[in-house]
């Protein structure tokens, strides 16, 4: 973007600042992901569709998508085990680009023509990462070939960097909320056992823990069951 006119840089900077505020305003990690892909279609020139996926143990998990076409593209990457976003996650390379999906592609000989059948002309994949956490990949698609120039690639990389931090923060906040909620439910369940069944605090917790282990159910679920029924688990 260094060669772009000053007003282009200014518009991009304003849009990026608006995105940062918008992401921080979201209530959950999923809402953050959904907003990231929406912003990608605005901030990256030529971007018609965008999505976020992760690859865990060789399995693709779609986290967010602006359209069903993106979800179908994710499934293609899963089935073929190739594509820019699959490689961005598995190889830890920051950016992959396919400029023309109509042409044979040496790296992804099967993926490129299948994506072209969906009406896509070009694609990019960006690794979503923070210093301590690899999160997945942002995948960006255009209906036209040759759309993603150096400026678009740089814009995508900047967006992916900001998005990764926002997603990581949202996920941490959500996990903290779940942890506090779990602690509250366990405390409430222990109180019920102590009051209704005459157990000590230590014994009440042991009852919860044993029921969780015997039934192979999370401690939180056992606590929730006790809160709902008031009954001591057998």
From TrEMBL:
Keywords: Kinase, Transcription, Transcription regulation, Transferase
Matches recorded under Gene3D superfamilies: 3.30.450.40, Winged helix-like DNA-binding domain superfamily/Winged helix DNA-binding domain
Top-level taxon in the UniProt lineage: Bacteria
GO terms for MF: kinase activity; RNA binding
InterPro entries: ANTAR, CheY-like_superfamily, GAF, GAF-like_dom_sf, GAF_ANTAR, WH-like_DNA-bd_sf
Residue span, ANTAR domain: 166-227
Official protein name in the record: GAF and ANTAR domain-containing protein
Annotated organism of origin: Streptomyces liliifuscus
């Amino acid at each position: 973007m260094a060669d772009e006119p000053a007003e282009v840089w200014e518009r991009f900077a304003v849009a990026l600042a608006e995105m940062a505020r918008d992401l921080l305003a979201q209530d959950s990690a999923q809402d953050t992901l959904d907003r990231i892909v929406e912003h990608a279609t605005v901030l990256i020139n030529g971007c018609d569709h965008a999505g976020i996926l992760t690859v865990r143990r060789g399995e693709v998990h779609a986290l967010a998508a602006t359209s069903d076409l993106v979800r179908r593209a994710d499934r293609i990457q899963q089935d073929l085990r190739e594509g820019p976003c699959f490689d961005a996650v598995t190889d830890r390379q920051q950016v992959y680009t396919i400029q023309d999906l109509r042409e044979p592609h040496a790296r992804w000989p099967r993926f490129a023509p299948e994506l072209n059948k969906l009406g896509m002309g070009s694609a990019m994949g960006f690794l979503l990462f923070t210093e301590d956490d690899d999160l997945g990949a942002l995948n960006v698609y255009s209906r036209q070939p040759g759309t993603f120039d150096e400026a678009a690639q740089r814009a995508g990389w900047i967006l992916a960097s900001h998005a990764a931090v926002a997603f990581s923060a949202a996920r941490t906040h959500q996990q903290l909320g779940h942890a506090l909620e779990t602690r509250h439910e366990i405390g409430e369940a222990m109180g019920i056992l102590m009051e209704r069944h005459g157990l000590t605090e230590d014994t009440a917790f042991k009852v919860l823990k044993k029921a969780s282990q015997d039934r192979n159910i999370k401690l939180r679920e056992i606590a929730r069951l006790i809160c709902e029924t008031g009954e001591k688990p057998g």
